[in-house]
Prior knowledge:
The complex is a heterodimer. By secondary structure, chain A is an all-beta fold.
Amino acid sequence: DARVTQTPxxxxxxxxxxxxxxxxxILGHNTVFWYRQTMMQGLELLAYFRNxxxxxxxxxxxxxxxxxxxxxxxxxLKIQPSEPRDSAVYFCASGLGQGxxxxxxxxxxxxxxxx
Amino acid sequence: xxxxxxxxxxISVVEKEDxxxxxxxxxxxxxxxxFWYKQPPSGELVFLIRRNSFDEQNEISGRYSWxxxxxTSSFNFTITASQVVDSAVYFCALSESGTTSGTYxxxxxxxxxxxxxx
Lengths: 115, 118
C-alpha cells in the first residue's frame, strides 16, 4: 500500500529552536499540501505545491515558517524560531494533481510540542 | 466567515443506532467539489467520498450514505447501524477556486467527533 510518510511522528522542542518536518509523498503524486491541526482552528491549510512549485502559501506565517520541495520525493516544513503557539499536529497530504476534484492522501502527522 | 461548517462538535450514540453528521458549506463557485474524510484514532485522514456540484444524487456505500442538497448548501453523512469501529473524527471539505488562476483551495470543516458506545 502506497502511503505518505511523515517524520518525525513526535517532536518536543524548546521555544526558539528550529524545527524541520519532512514528508515523502506517494510516488507519482504531484501535489503536496501542508495542514496544521489544532483544537481551536481545526485543519488549516498552510501551503500547497504542484510539480514542486509553491502555488499557495497564504496560510503560512511567513516570518517564521518556510516550505520547500527540494525534489519530487521530499517536502519540508520548517519553523524558525519555534514558539509555544506552534504546538499542533502537522499533516502532509499528496494527490495526483487532478484539480479540484482530487482526493488527498494524508500522512500520520507530526505532533509538535514547543515548550 | 466559515466556509465549511460542522456544527456538531461531538456526537455519542449507542452501537446499532443510526447517526447523521451535518455539513453546511458556503461558496461563490458554480463548480466545486465536496468531500468527507475520516480521522480514526491513528491520526491520518482517510478519504471517504467526493461529489461535484452538478451531481445531486444521493449515494450509498454499505452502511454509509450521503445526502447532497444544493438548495440548502448541505452535504450530510449518515451511518446506519453504527459500530464501535466507526468512532472517529469526521471532516467535511470543500474544494473551490483559489485566489490565483489555476489554483484551488481545499478547505476543511472543524470536524465532528463520533463516539459509538458498545
